[in-house]
Specification:
The complex is a heterohexamer, with 3 copies of chain A and 3 copies of chain D. Chain A is built from 2 helices and 6 strands. The longest helix of chain A is centred in the C-terminal third of the chain and has 17 residues. Chain A is elongated. Helix content of chain D is about 80%, strand content about 0%. The interface between C and F is medium-sized, with 31 and 34 residues. The complex binds adenosine monophosphate (AMP) (3 copies) and sodium ion (NA) (3 copies). The site of one sodium ion has 9 residues of chain E, from helix 5.
Amino acid sequence: MYSKQRIELIIERMAYKRACRVLEASGLTGYTALPTLGGFGGGNRWQRDTDISGGSDMVAIIAIGSPERVTKALTDIENILGAHIGVVSVSDVQVLRGERF
Amino acid sequence: MYSKQRIELIIERMAYKRACRVLEASGLTGYTALPTLGGFGGGNRWQRDTDISGGSDMVAIIAIGSPERVTKALTDIENILGAHIGVVSVSDVQVLRGERF
Amino acid sequence: MYSKQRIELIIERMAYKRACRVLEASGLTGYTALPTLGGFGGGNRWQRDTDISGGSDMVAIIAIGSPERVTKALTDIENILGAHIGVVSVSDVQVLRGERF
Amino acid sequence: MDVAIATLLSPIILFFILGMGAALLRSQMNVPEAVAKGMAIYLMMAIGLKGGVQMATNPLTLDVILVLLSGIFLSAAIPALAFVILRATTNLGRTDAAAVSAHYGSISIVTFVAATEAVRLSGLDSSGHMVAVAALMETPAIVTALILALAGRPKAADEVAGAERGELVREVALNASVVVLVGALIIGWIAGADGTASVQPFFTGIFQGVLCLFLLDMGLSAGRGLRNGWRTLGATTVGFGLYMPVVSALIATGLCFVLPIGQGDAALLITLAASASYIAVPAAMRLALPEARPSVYLTLSLGVTFPFNVILGIPIYIFLASLVTA
Amino acid sequence: MDVAIATLLSPIILFFILGMGAALLRSQMNVPEAVAKGMAIYLMMAIGLKGGVQMATNPLTLDVILVLLSGIFLSAAIPALAFVILRATTNLGRTDAAAVSAHYGSISIVTFVAATEAVRLSGLDSSGHMVAVAALMETPAIVTALILALAGRPKAADEVAGAERGELVREVALNASVVVLVGALIIGWIAGADGTASVQPFFTGIFQGVLCLFLLDMGLSAGRGLRNGWRTLGATTVGFGLYMPVVSALIATGLCFVLPIGQGDAALLITLAASASYIAVPAAMRLALPEARPSVYLTLSLGVTFPFNVILGIPIYIFLASLVTA
Amino acid sequence: MDVAIATLLSPIILFFILGMGAALLRSQMNVPEAVAKGMAIYLMMAIGLKGGVQMATNPLTLDVILVLLSGIFLSAAIPALAFVILRATTNLGRTDAAAVSAHYGSISIVTFVAATEAVRLSGLDSSGHMVAVAALMETPAIVTALILALAGRPKAADEVAGAERGELVREVALNASVVVLVGALIIGWIAGADGTASVQPFFTGIFQGVLCLFLLDMGLSAGRGLRNGWRTLGATTVGFGLYMPVVSALIATGLCFVLPIGQGDAALLITLAASASYIAVPAAMRLALPEARPSVYLTLSLGVTFPFNVILGIPIYIFLASLVTA
Ligand SMILES: Nc1ncnc2c1ncn2[C@@H]1O[C@H](COP(=O)(O)O)[C@@H](O)[C@H]1O
Ligand SMILES: Nc1ncnc2c1ncn2[C@@H]1O[C@H](COP(=O)(O)O)[C@@H](O)[C@H]1O
Ligand SMILES: Nc1ncnc2c1ncn2[C@@H]1O[C@H](COP(=O)(O)O)[C@@H](O)[C@H]1O
Ligand code: NA
Ligand code: NA
Ligand code: NA
């Protein structure tokens, strides 16, 4: 097993592509996006279904990578999160086939 | 980067609102809910699609917060999980903009 | 709180049942599968919606269990990931009601 | 007999059997949840509108009100009987038995629709207010079952953390099927046949076809429920899922003898009594009695009783109704 | 007056009110997102096709081109007025005010459809090129609003990381509603009445019914938006959501006096001016002005102005149109 | 020629082109997966029912059985040829080549439907048992391809962990398209024209319209597949995706000369031979040959061959069929 880091970025859907470009530019070899149902933040609850506008829709992006690449990505993610709605967290994980990340 | 904790609560959908209220009451500043597809527990497999009743539907709730708030939330979550179907786990994460959590 | 491990397996949908069987065979008491929206890997982006073939569809499987069971599961997961598209990571978590895992 | 065969060979039932067969053979096919939910809302709108339009032409007579009250009575009374039978013949605990009995007092709107079609195929008439009866029968059963479940408790149980006053009432009184069914009924009543003419191609024209697709999905759902869940049920519990609808049907038949009700409506009332809920009641039970096991009540209602009713029960209930008016 | 009541009692509006009521009463029911999105695409295909088929039979005269240009003018000009009003009467900052005003310059296609039905119910005719007007009015408002928002900035703001040249233009010019509406319009134009005959049962026959289901969902969406969001809006902001559509309508009415336009088309142009976007513009604003608060502009457009227009506004706009041609 | 133009200008094809254009221009619009899956099930039910009803009126003659067997033969034989061509002209390895060839032996049901429409537009008749031919042609190709792929392996490969005996057979024999197509065919056969009359407004009335929406989505899917995937394909591989359907069509045409088959049915059989699978076969390949690259076979089948067939191929295949019966 190899030690890597895992980014979990929860971000508004309209900024999803921007986040993707940033992750790719940082050299991360992959990421996966998951849909969300709803949530709470800034004192407001939101819910995906029956929000016809999709205005508060979020996606969760998971990316596993080496600490250097993760650190590199975080600078730009911080910039995105200055403008866009979202939250990011980083944790330590172990992976198989470490050369892939 | 600031050290925080991440709660991951997988809970039956009908108890989702109860879990939300508990998380909000504990002072956590936000959470995000994700849909699920299926799973396994107690010896039974379940699958979301084509379960017309939605009876075994689960949601995954992710909340990032300070250790104190997370600890506070866990007492009530333990109570909910005494009655409702679900699993909770807590892990350490690093975040940007630590004052938000 | 009890110390356990959390497997996060992101794997192509057609291999989902195989992964389920492996997780169950390793003695893990439960897992939950989450849908995905899209992602990036091997230089290619993919997106779930409007990919009529479902060919690049992935699922994310989360399983919490004791380190021994997780280690046991990982051998077979490594075998699956030799043939199928996917990524696995393991992290440390704390749980309530530790006897369940 | 002819009715039974005609019903069995209608595309709706055949698609149900197809779905159930595919699930039992472990096919991986499925209908997306979102589509199934969308169709469920559509079906309830269509049923409600149709009932409302019919009610707009018929005054709300005392006879109708008697039938409405009978529906409420059946929904409230059947769970008590079901509870006694379950406690006497199965090894289900008090809470599980109460939860199961709530399902049998309440109704299945799809079974109701399938019965409406079979009634029509038999050349009988049914009236729009039976939709109102169906809507009224959804919830009284839940009240009875909660009384039964909680009666046995030493003292009021502690609330689950995060529970909120009124959430159960809101769930029971404002769930999708009540909102859409009752709402569409009222809209049909207000707008009448003329006002709804422009929406009929959608709500009437393609109704039967959508029902085929929905029943394919119901078949998959029932088949999978049965295959995953039957092991958790003892033989006596499975048996209950097969004879209880007939018991409820007989009670309703008895009641029909003293009610001012036509043959078609009687068949529908009997079917409603015999049918078991698998969406609204399970949701309410998760909130009110979370310790009751969904694998028991869902397998029974969706995997055993629903297929029984749709394939075999409805012709029996139409036959019972013919006795009443004979 | 009769038109107002007929509109109010049509199933479409009644289902909207049902959904809004259920949401305000905190019902948990919802229509799956996927189904709502599917219906939205369907509705735009149907509207586009219908418009295209009608345009195929009528030549593109100078009169028509004048109406098209008027639509573009209204979409571009209304935001400037809205911006001035918002800055003068509310406490919204420059960016929020610009974002809100973009919504009021642009249009809501569902309001347009509801108005088309009401116009038809009033016995008036409307023409296919009004769909083209609707499509053309979607985007100019965004340009005006961006100019207003950015004019106040000391210098060009730094780009958000990951932003790409052209992404905003692509989003604005190739979003689903532009692609489907304009695409279907052209397809209807090419294929004509004969070529589209075989698809009419889907796109015309069941259109009204699908609209009922869609408006039920819109009602849920609007009601929930209003319930969650009204606290973030001050009274003057809510007021803006109620009088701004009337202000825009009056401007459009004035323009209609000098335009070569029929009564039905005038009613639609006025409605378009009065309607506010809640899908396309919010998406564009998230990309272009992410610091503007969606809770403000969405609550206003979807929770306040949309219900106002659908329930009360449309009869007013039809009345205004009758003044023009009188 | 006229047929080619009429086909090209039908709304179905125009919506396909619209979707493909939008995707190639990088529009972000999409049709939700759940809706697309729901429509796919609907289309297969409709096709199956229609075929079954037609078969109910025509006896299963020896002529029909010959056509059925020819379909099986084509499905089994074409992959062998495709494999040889791919190995000779492209740099694909044995496994990739085998996986691709499975797709070309199997069929695309949407191409089949589009051809059925074009055949009808050309004034030709086709018969219900062609649906059975389509269903039968889905799987033999997979068997051939697996033999080709595994023949080259030194010894039986180790099983993937978690693989289960029978899972591949279940996937191939009980996937959604087989279950629904064959199931609906049998249901149509049992229920006949009378029994299915009440579901015709759904399954026939709105069929063409739903097809438009589905093909819009297919266009988006094909366009995106092509845009993301074409770089992984060499020029010779792309070429294969363009000439292989014609090669298969010519083989089928040859066979038609010796078969007792009408012109419409011949056109459909040729189209089936020319069409390539993009749902059922990819799924089977992921289980059976996971090391084959989906980006190769999906891009080829969905991004190259499907658009070719739908836009240009079908008129050619109808022309080829006219040679047979001439
Ligand atoms: N480092 C990663 N972190 C998260 N997901 C990944 C990562 N690498 C690959 N994936 C997911 O796995 C899929 C296949 O990746 P690959 O095997 O690299 O082609 C991608 O499309 C992603 O959804
Ligand atoms: N602490 C948190 N943990 C998880 N998700 C969060 C958290 N805070 C915010 N979110 C998500 O981000 C969205 C926007 O939050 P905010 O920026 O606080 O308005 C919320 O609706 C949540 O979905
Ligand atoms: N160890 C676990 N890891 C992840 N999810 C679990 C685990 N155990 C249970 N679950 C989820 O919780 C549901 C109910 O589990 P149970 O309470 O064991 O019946 C399962 O169907 C899973 O979706
Ligand atoms: Na009942
Ligand atoms: Na406007
Ligand atoms: Na083929």
